[in-house]
Amino acid sequence: MNSPIRRISAGCLLLCVALLINVTYVQAFWADELNARPENRRVLLDEYSRERGPILLADDTPVAESVPSDDEYQFLRQYPQGPAYTPLTGYYSYYYGRTALERAQNDILSGDDDRLFVRRLIDLVTGEEPRGGAVRLTIDPAAQQAAYDAMVAEGYKGAVVAIDVETGAILAAVSTPSYDPNAMASHSIEEQQAAREALEADPDNPDLNRAFAQRLPPGSVFKLVTAAAALETGDFDAGTEVPGPAQYDVPLSDRDLPNQNGEACADGTPTLIEALRDSCNTAFAYLGNEVGADALREQAERFGFGTQPLTNDDMNAATSVFPSELDDALTAYSAIGQFEVAATPLQIAMVSAAIANDGVLMEPYLVHSVRGPDLVSPIEQTEPEERTRAVSPETAEQLTEMMVDVVENGTGQNAQIEGIQVAGKTGTAQTGREEDPPYAWFTSFAPADEPRVAVAVVIEEAPETARDDIGGGRLAAPIARDVMEAVLGS
Amino acid sequence: MSLDRARARLEPPAADSIVPRRGRGTELILLMFAIGIATFAYINVDLGALGRVPPNALAYLGGLTAATGVAHVVIRIRAPYADPVILPIVVTLCGLGLAMIHRIDIARETTHATIQLTWMAVGVAMFVGVLIVVRDHRVLSRLPYLAGLAGLLLLVLPLLPVIGHSIRGARIWINVGPMTFQPGEAAKIILIIAFAAYLVQTRDALALAGRRILGIDLPRARDLGPILIVWVAALGILVVQNDLGPSVLLFGIFVLMIYVATERISWIILGLLLIVAGGLAANAVVSHVQTRVDFWLDPFIDPTGQIAQSLYGLAYGGLLGTGLGQGRPELTQISESDFIGSALGEELGLTGLISVILLYALLASRGLRAGLLLRDPFGKLLAAGLAAGFFLQVFIVLGGVTKLIPLTGLTTPFLSLGGSSLVMNWVLVALLIRLSDAARRPVPASSSSSPAADTAVTQVVRIR
């Protein structure tokens, strides 16, 4: 009977090997896929069992935090400030993943970052539950709230960006309409799905961060760039008279480029300062052709066009563009911020900020510092960084003078602040679609003599305003004023 | 070696020169490791899950040592030549099972571990009882038909009104007072004994060749009676008790044993055909067979289902496991019983699960080895049946929870929560100890002048 027993032993060995191969397959090779399945509650519980670090504002107010949860999971991600900060925080959804800072700073927030390695090691030894680090933003809560409240009060669709001109720190970044990210962070997958479907179904696309990620034709606010290019040539100064007829005869084209009100600016030969004050299209179209497309593009790029901003913060900001291969006709349109010129509100704020900062463009940034899980011990702090010299100090000074004139005597009077000198520029940009009302822009900085904050506002849609009343000065300037006041008042 | 052999030929081994071969010292050292592993696992569970050393750790160590010590001492007295590896493996497995049951107790706020510990004590008592009562395994072969009848009776016991009842759809339980038993566990062992006894008597007839088809000698039609009876009984269990595992196991063991007895591969082929036929028939009658196959093919048709959860647990454990007390085995259904393999894989990882599988394989190999060494056909058959049946059960249940084969309900020997299974597996191990003792015991030196002397000497050498 020994030979069948030996064969049966071999059979048992075979079964044993089959078991071993199979468990090796499941646990070593299939495991990653199994762990990634959305209905896998173990991974879900794990995610929710770690105390994710908070995202803090400049005054340490949390805009995203993990609070102990009374259901089967340990922590619930909450956004106590609600929709005003959603474009910055993004959401933390188990099912749909993470967006914005929740995604970009995930390693720190979850505690997986290498910079927290020592901390994790200590936790491992002491048996503490590992916690995530904190991310402190540069956002000034007063400015952010003022901007958000003003936009929402009027029902505007658009965005606001405010920058600290000396450091490049972003003080406010608002995009409206926004949405409450709390539903996306719910522990209920169904609730997450419902929230996500509502987001996707919303025609206003609240999930789009209009402050950083949406490019629009900047219209007349781009005249700041054209003016800068002209001043930088040395052939012009603020007092130089330029032709400003009612119609600009566009080269190589039978079309005429008209002024907004259909009249000539300042008797037809405005100085540069007058041309900017009245936002004279024909004068700037002329200037554009005088300096040429290449000089315009070069100037735009020195202000930040053509380079993606906020890459250090990994915020998926859009790169603003000044078109290439322009003939004289298109150069004329581009010089007044039309045709294919497209800029984000962040980019326009950077233009103002550079002018305000004696012509030096600071690298914009959003994350002030990263801290350990105790929320105090610093791990890394962002140092302000010079990006480019956009214009010479002299040009910056002249542009400031011109922009002050815009707010004091020109199209930007709605941005005036009692007792503080404000420099600004309006814009009313054609959308390129006949049926759509124009975009209302405003960009400014204050105080003009010792600038601290630069702002850009864009209003894509103002449902309660008649089409003819839509203009940068009328709609956007008051919001810029509110934001500047909030920054300077704090 | 050749010197040893030469000496063995020249003179019968003196009593004290055999002592090292008994392996009782080896067993003692291995047992210390086993108790150490079990106690550390128990402490580790509390450290991982609750962050403290269990207050009763010393009592646990003491209890385990006492139970194991009793078993060891009884082996020393009653089965001094027994294989020294068997008991340590069993203690290790029991310890891991207890630790995991305790771990799931913590998660589910139950108190199963204490009950299981009590059952382990009962198991050890039964182990001791078997070793004391059954002094020679051959007495077991005396009453094959009565044993067969007793086994079948135990199998149908749960079908009786009042005492029989079903849990999770399987009617394999009986109530005795406040306690429940699975008489099937006892039936399995008694039936293996009955099969062995019966096959020893009839194997010559069963080995006779009948018709030859496709180069295989089929048994004679008139000899098909026994296998058909077992087949029908197995199908009966499946249909009436709604439990797939025991019927496959029972029939599988019978087929293996008939093959060992007759040395005819045709019985295996016939058995496989009958399994397929039975499976198809059962599929038509019993709905949950098809369900089991569906869940095997795609466990994620219900992502909250048993197999899916088991796979998630295994994946979560990965290579090294989460560590005892730090996984989430409570998310896997019945992880304290049928799915305890998956719970171990989760917290001890692939490495831990592989170790457990290898422990089982080692235990089975020790039983099969005893079968090879034994000299009487009944002992050989019994050892092969017990060991191969044991491993077949391990394969069916572990293969089921790891999606190698369709899931069938069976307990994982020594690990799963459940008194009947634990106690009867201790009985099974007692029989293996008894058999290995007989296999390794040297033939009395006084027989050197008899005609059997040559074989006796050869056998002594073969022990190594």
From TrEMBL, chain A:
It comes from the Bacteria. Residues 52-135 form the Penicillin binding protein A dimerisation domain. One of its GO terms (biological process) is cell wall organization. GO terms for molecular function: penicillin binding; peptidoglycan L,D-transpeptidase activity. GO terms for cellular component: plasma membrane. It holds the Pfam family Transpeptidase. Residues 158-485 form the Penicillin-binding protein transpeptidase domain. SUPFAM superfamilies: beta-lactamase/transpeptidase-like, Penicillin binding protein dimerisation domain. InterPro entries: Beta-lactam/transpept, Beta-lactam/transpept-like, PBP_dimer_sf, PBPA_dimer, PCN-bd_Tpept. This is Penicillin-binding protein 2.
TrEMBL record, chain B:
Keywords: Cell shape, Membrane, Transmembrane, Transmembrane helix. One of its GO terms (cellular component) is cell division site. The chain crosses the membrane at residues 28-45, 57-75, 82-101, 113-134, 146-167, 179-200, 221-238, 244-261, 268-289, 348-369, 381-402, 414-433. It holds the Pfam family FTSW_RODA_SPOVE. GO terms for biological process: cell division; regulation of cell shape. One of its GO terms (molecular function) is lipid-linked peptidoglycan transporter activity. It is found in: Membrane. Its main location: membrane. This is FtsW/RodA/SpoVE family cell cycle protein.
